[in-house]
Amino acid sequence: MSRKRQPSVCTAKSLDARRKLTDRTWWPWLRRAVTTVFFGLVAWLLVSQARTIEWGRVLSSLQDYPLSASWGAVALAAASYALYSCFDLLGRHYTGHPLRAATVMQLTFVSYAFNLNLGSLVGGIAFRYRLYSRLGLAMGTITRVVSFSLLANWMGYLLLAGGVFSLQPPALPPSWKIDAFELRLIGFALLAVALAYLAACAFSSQRHFSLCG
Q: Is 199 left (phi over 0), alpha (psi -120 to 50) or beta?
């Protein structure tokens, strides 16, 4: 007979503290105020970024490119967005939350667009928390989804950079105090970290780690 696992002490305290906070009469007003400030800040950032772009020069530069190169760039951008939109599907499978796959991909698509234009703190993290919470996910679930997505993203960076540095190190500026041999060592180290993580996922008997008892 399996014994039902009891919540840890720190988890129980966290849940009690959250219930006390959300039961306050001013809590709904605080959430609305935070939401308004957040989206107001996003709008201000978008307008500020748009004002720094010389749209005439952008249009003329696009007209100078061959049509095949422009469509190739569009295809690569679409593939990038499609791939990134799948990252949160891993978190969906990991956490088992009830949101549909199409909804998750749409949310991640929007977050990726803001991530590229306003930075990871706004698009990659803050937007995800805001949109997922609006769809009813608990903060703990959102944190696990976001963490899993960020981890998958950085594992890709490690594998790509490790492969490039170890197989064909790029030419670096003369002012950089590092040579091709040292760059290869860095590449091997990055590959070792990524492969160690994958091996832990595949062969470790412990499937989760707790930071508090």
A: alpha
Question: Whole-prediction pTM value?
Answer: 0.65
State the CB neighbour count (10 A cutoff) for residue 184: 16
How many residues are given for the chain?
213
Task: Look at the block and give the residue holding tokens 């305290």.
Answer: 13
Residues contacting residue 178 through CB under 8 Å, at least 6 positions apart: 172
Token output for 88: 């949160």
Concatenating the DSSP letter of every residue in the chain gives -PPPPPPPHHHHHHHHHHHHHHTSTTHHHHHHHHHHHHHHHHHHHHHHHHHTS-HHHHHHHHHHS-HHHHHHHHHHHHHHHHHHHTHHHHHHHHH-----HHHHHHHHHHHHHHHHHH-IIIIIIIHHHHHHHHTT--HHHHHHHHHHHHHHHHHHHHHHHHHHHHHSPPPPPTTSS--HHHHHHHHHHHHHHHHHHHHHHHH-S-----S--
pLDDT tens digit sequence for 26-50? 767 776 777 677 667 767 776 777 7
